[in-house]
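Working notes for the structural subgroup meeting. M.R. asked for a predicted model of this chain before we commit to crystallization trials. I am recording the input and output together here so anyone reviewing the notebook later can reproduce the run.

Input as submitted:
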Amino acid sequence: MRISAKVMAFACILLLLGSEVALAHPFKCTSAITSNFNGTAIAAGDFVWFNGVVKVSGLHASPTTVFVTHATITFTANGKAYLLTVPDSEITFSTSTTLATTHFETLSAEIGSPLGWDTDLPFGGLAGNDFLAGLTFRVPASGLPGGIKNVIWQATFSSNTSGLTMNWQWAAAVYTNFNAGYNAIGVKPVDDNKASLYQNSDHAGTPENFKQFVIGGARGGGGSNFTGSYSGTGSCALTLQPTTSLTVSQPD
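Returned structure, recorded in token form:
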């Protein structure tokens, strides 16, 4: 995929800013993934559901919490630059958790986020990916053209637990109706078809209560593609000396 020097430089700036974030957790990394939207234009008033998933490797102690903070999504459309702030999230893996859940609520005071995604997962045995975070963006009056290039999602990952590696992706789907609070949309917390209330084959991040409103656009084709197609996979290891990574991918 060809990517301009300007976009590459901007992505590197985002990574550097994220890596300098002062967090209480000793192990951290910052990762960015850039990808493209498909060719379908998005009408004014529709909603883009940006959603991310993660697979955490190296789990060895229960409970383990991964914090995802200072995440942004950036792109340019119709000559305007957009900078969207993704809500923070904390993902806890615990042997005491038997049902995977995600709620939008008050997070731990240590990360300074009044509200964000709080996901509780069983410690092991989950199939597939887990929900990372999500953001609803209502399309402005000018609409959005198809084929938007170089959409960048970057985030900082941190934990008190050593030895963890984050493998994550993002997607985006378009909905004609999404005008509800985050807790009302019914986000599926895991791919696993038995581990949550939503015992189906939908991807983690699917807004189960609004599936009937999905249409084509962003990175999705409508139909049963409720999250949109995934970007390439970003990977970074949580270390005492924060690392950064940049993944450049093309749409499916």
